[in-house]
């Protein structure tokens, strides 16, 4: 589990998270990282509203079938009213959720809206057997 | 991320290297907006050595393009490859910019 309170703290952890994803499933690591990075940006800026007294947590769990990533903040929650098809070409903001949707197989929020779960299915033809993965 | 700028009479050539995260996007925005305020409107941004750009970085490039287009300026992106090129295609931003190899 990774826990941090600010963008600066997350920046220090990025390489460790990438390394763990490479160990988990090298072929999907970068695309999974893209989804995580967008989720964390949302958690820091929109969830915790850059309040450094609040934490963001990332939990990465690997099963034989998929990688599940939970990103949790301590904000008041987020209501997603935007659909992927609404992605506006000339918008300067608002692509983060679209990128998450593009790079994972499924994602959902908890009831409060302060925790997003991302799931990426594992392709066994190029991912390491489950037993070789690093435990968290 | 490394941000290098070279200026000639007509255009600003920006060479980026590394990964562009939200904190880098803020620096890039400030630099390029400074050039626009100085009267520049043609930008060539070399992405050949960029291995990742997040949504905030994409947003800054869109912001620059929106600023210069009404002044008959343009942002041209060169050298995008791998997942960076894929990100522009998936978000359809390859239709917003002129993209060259």
Automatic annotation (TrEMBL), chain A:
A Pfam short name: HATPase_c_2
InterPro entries xref list: Anti-sigma-factor_SerPK, HATPase_C_sf, HATPase_dom
SUPFAM superfamilies tied to this protein: ATPase domain of HSP90 chaperone/DNA topoisomerase II/histidine kinase (SSF55874)
UniProt entry keywords in alphabetical sequence: Kinase, Serine/threonine-protein kinase, Transferase
Start and end residues of each Histidine kinase/HSP90-like ATPase domain: 19-120
Protein name: Serine/threonine-protein kinase RsbW
GO molecular function per UniProt: protein serine/threonine kinase activity
From TrEMBL, chain B:
Pfam families linked: STAS (PF01740)
InterPro entries: Anti-sigma_ant (IPR003658), STAS_dom (IPR002645), STAS_dom_sf (IPR036513)
GO MF entries: anti-sigma factor antagonist activity
Domain of life, per lineage: Bacteria
PANTHER family per the UniProt record, alphabetical: ANTI-SIGMA FACTOR ANTAGONIST TM_1081-RELATED, ANTI-SIGMA FACTOR ANTAGONIST TM_1081-RELATED-RELATED
Homology family: Belongs to the anti-sigma-factor antagonist family.
Protein name: Anti-sigma factor antagonist
Species this protein is from: Pelosinus propionicus DSM 13327
